[in-house]
Design goal:
The complex is a heterodimer of chains A (112) and B (320).
Chain A lengths: L1 E7 L2 E10 L4 H17 L3 E5 L3 E4 L1 H16 L4 E4 L3 H9 L7 E3 L2 H6 L1
Helix pairs in contact in A: 1-2
Chain B lengths: L1 E6 L10 H15 L7 H11 L2 H4 L8 E5 L5 E4 L4 H14 L5 E6 L4 H4 L14 E6 L4 H7 L16 E6 L5 E4 L2 E8 L5 E7 L5 E5 L12 H7 L5 E5 L4 H4 L11 H11 L3 E5 L7 H18 L6 E4 L5 E3 L1
Parallel strand pairs in B: 3-4, 4-5, 5-6, 10-11, 11-12, 12-13
Antiparallel strand pairs in B: 1-2, 1-14, 2-3, 7-8, 8-9, 9-10
Helix pairs in contact in B: 7-9, 9-10
Classes of the chains: A alpha/beta (112), B alpha/beta (320).
Protein name (chain B): Phosphoribosyl 1,2-cyclic phosphodiesterase
Pfam family, one (chain B): Lactamase_B_2
Protein name (chain A): Stage II sporulation protein AA (Anti-sigma F factor antagonist)
C-alpha cells in the first residue's frame, strides 16, 4: 500500500494505492489517522481517492471506521471518491456505502 | 466426517408465515410457465433444478444445533438451540436401530438461543442415555437447571432420567472426546463464548465458531483466530450482520459478519465456510442474497486457494 496526500480546494485529498488487507491495514489505518488530524487542523474535509485501491478487505474497511470515529469527533467529513468496480462492489457488499458518502469522482467529492 | 445442521438461525427461532409460503408457491408456478408434472418426483426434480433455494426451499428457523459424525459412534452435538428437538427425535430413531446412547454436547455459550432446546430433548428422559455436557463455562449446569425452574418451565431438571454430567474445558488444551480431538478457543461475546476445533482420525477438521464478535479495536488478535481455523475443511462461522451493522448500530451485540468470516478463512487457508447464525429478521430471500454477495466477495478477495462459501440451513449435511 502506497499513500500520497495533497491539500486541494480546501480539502485533504489522500490517494492510497494497492491492496489493503491484513498485511497493509495497519499502515493504512495509521495514514488515515494522520490525515484526519491534518484535516481537523485545517478545518477541511478528507477525501479518500479510492481509484488506486486494488481491493480492500474487512481490515481496511474497519480502519476506515476507526478513522471516521476520530473524524466525527473533530467535525471532519470523510468522503470516499472514485472507487473502481471492485472497491465499489466491496463497499456495497459490506454496506459501507451506507456509512460513508461515496462519489463517482474526486471533483464531485470536493464540491459535494 | 459428516456435519449435519439441525438449527442455523441466530438469537430467536422463527417460522415461515402463510404469506411467505404463498409467495414461494406463486413464484414457483410462474417459473413452471404452465408446465404439467406427471408425479411428485417430476415436480421435485423441477424444484431442485430450476428454482432458487429461497423459492424452492427455506433456510429454516430453528436456533443453533449442529451434529458432527465421525468419532467413536457416540453422538457429538454443538449447542442446544431449538434445533435440538428435531435432533432428539432423529436420535431416538437411530438408537432404535442400535446407535450408542452416549451424547457429547459442546456448548458455545449459555444464552437462550443455545440452550432453549434442551427441555424438549427427548433422549434426556431416556434412563439408558448418558449425556455429557462439555463447556468452557463453569456455570453451564446452573444455566440448564435455571431454565427448568418452575417459574420458566413445568418439568424440572431433576426429573430427567438420563445420566447427565458436566465437564468444563480449558482453552489451549487438546482433548480426546467421542473419538475426536477437540480444541477450545475463547471468543468475544457477552459472558464469553467458546469455539471448538474437531479433528477426526482421518485428519478432517471442522470448526464451530458462533456468537463471536471480532472487535474493531483488537484486530491484531485475529491472527490467533485464523490460526485456530488453520487448514480447516469446514468453518462454521457466525455471519449474522453486515460489516457496517457490526461496527455501528450493532457493535457489542456479540456477532460477526460474512466478510470478516471470509477474510479469516482466507488467512487460515480453510477449504469451506458455512455462513451461520442467520439474523432472525432476514427472510429466505435476504439470506440467499447475503450468500450470493458472500460468494462474490470471496471471488473479489481470493488468494491462491478458493474458499467454498456455503450457506447453512436446517437440514444441510456436509461430508468432509
Amino acid at each position: 500500500m502506497i499513500w500520497s496526500e495533497e491539500a486541494r480546494d480546501g480539502a485533504i485529498v489522500a490517494a492510497p494505492r494497492g491492496k489493503i488487507d491484513e498485511s497493509t491495514a495497519q499502515d493504512f489505518g495509521a495514514s488515515l489517522e494522520g490525515a484526519v488530524g491534518r484535516a481537523a487542523d485545517a478545518a477541511a474535509r478528507l477525501v479518500i481517492d479510492c481509484s488506486g485501491i486494488d481491493y480492500m478487505s474487512s481490515r481496511g474497511l474497519r480502519a476506515l471506521t476507526l478513522a471516521k470515529r476520530k473524524a466525527d469527533g473533530s467535525a471532519v467529513t470523510i468522503v470516499l471518491a472514485a472507487p473502481n468496480g471492485v472497491a465499489r462492489e466491496i463497499l456495497a457488499i459490506s454496506r459501507y456505502d451506507k456509512l460513508f458518502g461515496v462519489t463517482e469522482t474526486v471533483e464531485a467529492a470536493l464540491t459535494a | 466426517m459428516l456435519v449435519r445442521f439441525w438449527g442455523t438461525r441466530g438469537s430467536l427461532a422463527v417460522a415461515q408465515t402463510a404469506g411467505a409460503i404463498r409467495g414461494k408457491i406463486a413464484r414457483a408456478l410462474v417459473a413452471a410457465g404452465g408446465r404439467g408434472f406427471a408425479d411428485t418426483a417430476e415436480a421435485e426434480a423441477f424444484v431442485d433444478r430450476e428454482l432458487d433455494f429461497a423459492t424452492g426451499g427455506t433456510y429454516g428457523g430453528a436456533t443453533t444445533c449442529v451434529e458432527i459424525e465421525g468419532g467413536d459412534g457416540s453422538f457429538i452435538v454443538c449447542d442446544m438451540g431449538t434445533g435440538l428437538r428435531e435432533f432428539g427425535i432423529d436420535a431416538f430413531r437411530r438408537c432404535a436401530a442400535g446407535h450408542e446412547r452416549t451424547y457429547h454436547f459442546f456448548m458455545s455459550h449459555l444464552h437462550w438461543d443455545h440452550i432453549g432446546g434442551f427441555p424438549f430433548f427427548g433422549p434426556a428422559f431416556d434412563p439408558n442415555a448418558h449425556i455429557v455436557i462439555h463447556s468452557g463455562h463453569a456455570d453451564a449446569e446452573q444455566a440448564l437447571r435455571r431454565q427448568q425452574e418452575e417459574i420458566s418451565f413445568p418439568v424440572a431438571f431433576d426429573w430427567l432420567r438420563a445420566k447427565i454430567e458436566f465437564r468444563t474445558l480449558a482453552p489451549g488444551e487438546t482433548y480426546r472426546i467421542g473419538g475426536l480431538d477437540v480444541e477450545v478457543m475463547e471468543q468475544h461475546h457477552s459472558h464469553k463464548s467458546y469455539g471448538y476445533r474437531f479433528t477426526d482420525d482421518a485428519g478432517k477438521t471442522a470448526i464451530f465458531s458462533t456468537d463471536s464478535e471480532h472487535k474493531i479495536d483488537s484486530m491484531e488478535g485475529e491472527a490467533d483466530v485464523a490460526h485456530f481455523f488453520r487448514d480447516a475443511d469446514l468453518v462454521i462461522c457466525d455471519t449474522m450482520y453486515s460489516l457496517a451493522d457490526a461496527v455501528s448500530m450493532k457493535e457489542d451485540w456479540g456477532h460477526s459478519s460474512n466478510i470478516v468470516a471470509i477474510d479469516l478463512c482466507h488467512e487460515a487457508e480453510a477449504k469451506r465456510l458455512a455462513l451461520f447464525h442467520h439474523e432472525p429478521i432476514y427472510s429466505d430471500d435476504d439470506i440467499q442474497r447475503m450468500h450470493q454477495e458472500s460468494i462474490r466477495y470471496e471471488e473479489l478477495t481470493r488468494r491462491e486457494t478458493p474458499l467454498e462459501v456455503l450457506c447453512a440451513y436446517d437440514g444441510l449435511e456436509v461430508r468432509l
